[in-house]
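Changelog-linked ticket: zinc ion example.
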Amino acid sequence: MSGTPSRAGHDPTHPVEGSSDADTLVLAAPSAIGGHCPCSREAHDGTAAATGTSGFLRVAFTRGGLSPPEEWVRAAGDGADVRVVDSTPCSVGGDESGEREGEKGVVTVTASGPANLTDVGVRVTDALDDMDVTAGDTGGGSGGPVCCLGSLTALLQYVDAREAYRFVNAVTARVASLGGSTHAHIEPAAHDRRTIDTMASLFDIVAEPSSAGDGLDVVRSRRR
Ligand SMILES: [Zn+2]
């Protein structure tokens, strides 16, 4: 059966970028270079906003995750809707939530922090709704947003696995309803096998950085 986890490293015919509509669990921390984010290449090409993707959303649980991939920032400069929900503990903006313009074209919204997933969820939903409206206004992208959750390892320091699971499940469902895809980052060395498997069950694909260092290899897939 196709559900059996299997290593696919020997088979390079499954580039993650080719499956931009698949939800993916990335076994690596989010990186500003973007190599560990599926779909960052379409932004790099500058074609994403026009041809399908209505926006890019990073939900950041760490300071390091606050900066979206360079490719996204470049896409923002070209008019793509790029947003960051700042869910880091003790956000720079203090207790106040609000929008601010950071890197050119990137809109950052401050949420309460990882321990308050209800608030984070509201900010994420608001951002996705705004993107949806924006996409309609421009008459372009019929495709949905690309959502990056980085990282679950940081999130799991503040909430238990069940709460994190519910949050990720809600976000992936919401993004999917808009025709988009979600990927999340998790650092495998920081968790036991069961936690990784639980989180992986929410995603179509599990991927890890390729040994060549220039992308992602699919570790397992339950897509047909
Ligand atoms: Zn990412």
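Closing comment: Example verified and attached. The first helix runs from residue 40 to 45. The pocket of zinc ion is lined by residues 30, 37, 148, 150, 183, 185 (CB under 6 Å).
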